[in-house]
Amino acid sequence: MRDRQILWRDYTVDMKLVLMVLLGVDMLAVVGVMLTGALGMTNPDRDPRTSNKLMRWRVALQAVAVALVVALLLLG
């Protein structure tokens, strides 16, 4: 029984580390998409479809970030 507890603790520590790294990468991706969209709005002959696509990507990446935070909270 004690070995299972130790293995579970090691697993959760490793999983938290993986989730935190993924969260960091996802946050950087959100910032990159936001900056790309903001810089694209300064272009006078911009395509509105590109702006819309970037907005969808940002929302999706933020949803992934929220899911990763929830997973981290559930791991305790």
Q: Main sheet?
A: none
Termini separation: 21 Å
| Mean residue pLDDT | 89
Tertiary shape: rod-shaped
Fill in the keyword field for this structure.
single chain; 76 residues; mainly alpha; 2 helices; rod-shaped
Describe what you observe in this structure:
The chain has one domain (2-75). The protein is built from two helices and no strands. It has helices at residues 2-41, 48-75. Helix 1 packs antiparallel against helix 2 (48-75).
Report a brief summary of the structure.
This protein is mainly α and 76 residues long. It contains two helices and no strands. It has one domain (2-75).
How are the SSEs ordered, and which strands pair?
Elements: H1 2-41, H2 48-75
Helix pairs in contact: 1-2
